[in-house]
Design goal:
With 639 residues, the chain is α/β, with parallel strands linked by helices. Helix content is 46%, strand content 12%. It is an enzyme of class 5 (isomerase).
Length: 639
């Protein structure tokens, strides 16, 4: 496809600082590739061209497309920021007096360290997870003297207030994490940035890179943070040949330190800059763009743009409001089924998007019932949580005479004085007899391998299971509440201040309660005791994802669900900057849709009570538009 006017203007721009504002679906990757090929055509040695992307997937795509097009054997240097910083440090980290044999930890390793520290320090504050703490420490690391104890600065106090965590606890976690990294000689991604920046303050190191690269390109520039931009400026030679592509309206990583105003800063930094806007969208229908434009234009800014397309006008954007969560879920999945039948769609054409991972739970439950293939991105599956597995194990023991493996899950939740070796011994004893689990527990004196103390613990467990079984005809919700009370598990979690786990159990009970018509055992049989990763068996599957995880992707049909106040935008969005970022996040969600966009809302409940039932302010902004079909569904929606 030939370049359009805006794309051609960007590719053919003179070799000086150039900022391309590229709206969603406007072909920015094509522009980057064509610009690189132009550099090569103009005689720049490919290995002296540096292109920075934000994901390995983008890096691989650009590399592949250039290899197909370029007659030159050598290739441009295409890296993610952190891979490039690793290269810089591998060459010269000795100049900083550091050990060259450092190792880099990824985000999973990082979260494992935070998980250990939070557990060691018994820190339990609402919203504080290893992932959240990793994001907080990442931001603080750039505002605190490097490798020094955390100072009581404004940003640290902001996080302390936001997460209801004392400054002392926050400092304890921060300092313990830094100490842990130093002791094992590893660097995280923030260390790579800070040390690369420090290294480039040394003239000899800086001059090497100034002379090495003749052209620098940056993709997704709006997600660049201060220190990354500082490093780019330091390696930029006298040629000032810098080409950045980004969209301020898709800046959604403020929690990682990305700076929303970085595009404006680019224009202020260099004296002779060029600004090009790409506004012709190749992805979506005009109606989807109309709604997206209205939404994002509430965020005022001189770098704003208005997307348009030569695609068809398309169907109106659909907004539906429901009286409860299950009506919303049933409607969405019914609509998926309808579109598969009516328009010949496949499951892979659909994405269900939400603000937070926990919102996937009811959708996942119903999709499993339908036996559809599905994938959940970047999420711990709800059923793999420790507290859910524990309650599931108790339920299996209530209804299943043979559920020996469930003992492994409940023996320490709460602690019962039964070790793993004792459970294995019990398992062998039961297998050698004709006893059921409950019979084996009451006849445990026949097992000579167990200590008297272990036998007493097993007998007490038998009494507990007997009491739980006496209530198995209760409704499933009431049964679960009885289990966590009678077993002492609820008290155990409360003493550990793990109230979030109790809330998850209540949510779990509510989900099971929704299976009207099924008896309790039929419901329990569907609960997996051994959890597995959600890996689709085929490439035809429906995607459930947070909005953050689908940036850069597109789908024929998109459902943006749970558009309710305090969920989307998040209740944690306090400042004007926070609210603006939430609006940009909604814009990213809307602009993933190619053919049809659905927005849905139902009340948000927590601990069995409705917390919020006001529509999202983003819905208020668009539901009265002529290209939106908005309705409140007051009757019960049966799947």
């Amino acid at each position: 496809m030939p370049l359009n006017k805006g794309q051609r203007e960007a590719v053919e721009a003179p070799f000086k600082p150039t900022l391309v504002i590229a709206g969603a679906g406007t072909g920015k990757t094509t522009v980057l590739i064509e610009r690189i090929l132009r550099y090569i055509d103009e005689g720049i040695e490919p290995s002296r061209i540096l292109a920075i992307t934000f994901t390995n997937k983008s890096k691989d795509e650009i590399s592949h497309r250039i290899r197909k097009r370029s007659p030159v054997e050598s290739s441009p240097r295409i890296y993610t920021f952190h891979a490039f910083f690793y290269w810089v440090l591998r060459k010269d980290i000795g100049k900083l007096g550091r050990d060259k044999d450092f190792r880099v930890i990824d985000e999973n390793d990082q979260r494992a360290i935070f998980r250990m520290i939070l557990k060691e320090k018994s820190i339990d504050s609402e919203g504080i997870t290893p992932r959240t703490m990793a994001n907080i420490v990442s931001i603080l690391k750039h505002r605190n003297p490097y490798e020094q104890p955390l100072e009581r600065n404004e940003v640290a106090l902001h996080f302390s207030r936001k997460y209801e965590l004392s400054f002392e606890d926050l400092a304890d976690v921060y300092n313990a994490y830094e100490k842990n990294l130093r002791e094992i000689n590893v660097l995280d991604y923030d260390d790579l940035e800070i040390l690369a920046n420090n290294l480039l303050n040394i003239e000899e190191a800086r001059k090497y890179w100034n002379q090495y690269f003749k052209a620098i390109l940056i993709d997704e520039f709006q997600d660049t943070n201060d220190i990354q931009f500082e490093i780019v400026k330091k390696i930029l030679g006298e040629h000032q040949n810098l080409f950045c592509v980004g969209d301020p309206d898709q800046s959604i990583y403020g929690f990682r330190g990305a700076k929303a105003g970085i595009c404006r800063e680019f224009l202020d930094t260099f004296e002779d800059t060029q600004l090009v806007k790409l506004e012709e969208n190749y992805r979506s229908t005009q109606n989807i763009l109309n709604v997206s434009n209205v939404l994002i234009n509430k965020n005022s800014g001189e770098l704003s743009k208005v997307l348009f397309t030569s695609n068809e006008e398309g169907s109106k954007v659909v907004y539906r409001e429901f009286i409860n969560e299950w009506d919303e879920v049933n409607y969405v999945l019914d609509e998926v089924q309808y579109l598969i039948k009516r328009e010949g769609a496949s499951l892979r054409d659909f994405a269900i998007l939400y603000r937070n991972n926990f919102l996937a739970v009811p959708f996942e439950m119903k999709i499993k019932e339908k036996k559809w293939e599905y994938s959940i991105t970047n999420s711990v599956e709800f059923y793999s949580r420790e507290e859910i597995r524990a309650v599931a194990a108790y339920l299996h023991l209530v209804f299943n005479d043979d559920a020996t493996d469930a003992l492994y899950k409940i023996r320490a939740l709460p602690p019962k004085g039964i070790g793993e070796v004792a459970v294995r011994t019990f398992e062998t004893f039961k297998a050698a007899s004709s006893y059921t689990v409950l019979e084996a527990l009451f006849n445990i004196d026949e097992c000579p391998e167990l200590t008297t103390r272990a036998k007493t613990a097993f007998k007490e467990l038998g009494v507990l299971i007997g009491e739980l079984r006496s209530k198995k005809d209760l409704g499933i919700y009431d049964l679960i509440m009885f289990i966590i009370d009678k077993s002492g598990y609820k008290k155990y979690l409360m003493e550990k201040k793990e109230l979030g786990r109790i809330e998850n159990i209540i949510k779990f009970a509510e989900i099971l309660k929704s299976d009207k018509g099924a008896d309790n055992w039929e419901v329990v049989k569907e609960i997996p005791l051994k959890t597995k990763d959600v890996v689709p068996k085929t490439d035809d599957y429906i995607l459930l994802s947070t909005v953050h995880q689908v940036k850069g992707l597109e789908f024929k049909y998109v459902f943006v669900v749970k558009m309710v106040s305090d969920v989307f935008p998040s209740y944690r969005s306090i400042t004007a900057a926070d609210k603006s970022e939430e609006r940009r996040l909604a814009y990213v969600a809307f602009t993933r849709a190619k053919k049809r966009l659905y927005i849905t809302k139902s009340p948000y409940s927590s601990k069995g009570s409705i917390v919020s039932n006001r529509e999202s302010e983003f819905v208020t902004d668009i539901k009265g538009l002529p290209f939106v079909d908005a309705r409140v569904v007051t009757k019960k929606w049966f799947s």
